[in-house]
Amino acid sequence: MTGRPDDDRRTGHGPSAPDGDHRPARRQGTSVPRRLDIDREEVERGLAGLVLTIVELLRQLMERQAIRRIDQGGLSDEQIENLGLTLMALEDRMTELREHFGLSPEDLNLDLGPLGPLLPRD
């Protein structure tokens, strides 16, 4: 024994918590709350924002690819029409979902620090 009464030899840890349990005591100022205050709506909104950000990124990539294919002349008029209608419907649905979750287009544009924004600004 080291002569320090707060050593707990049974667990191999240093000082025990004052309430008698044998876990190491926490230092002052570093306590972790036993219960997290989580707002369900805020978590839902955050998750929806993340998913919609990914969908918006993919939508913009598909739109750019479609424009490249149109410019290269690789699509028929019917394919161009179908592609345009599909992309417009997807954009409309994205707008509905953003409004449902109270998100703006700017909310979906993650800041990547030195790389700049994830989505190009129009």
From TrEMBL:
Q: Where is the composition biased (Basic and acidic residues)?
A: 1-11
Task: Tell me its family.
Answer: Belongs to the gas vesicle GvpK family.
Q: Would you tell me the protein name for this molecule? A: Gas vesicle protein K
Which UniProt keyword terms apply here?
A: Gas vesicle
Q: Which organism is it from?
A: Actinacidiphila acidipaludis
Subcellular compartments = Gas vesicle
**What is the top-level taxon of the source organism?**
Bacteria
* Annotated region described as Disordered, given as residue ranges: 1-37
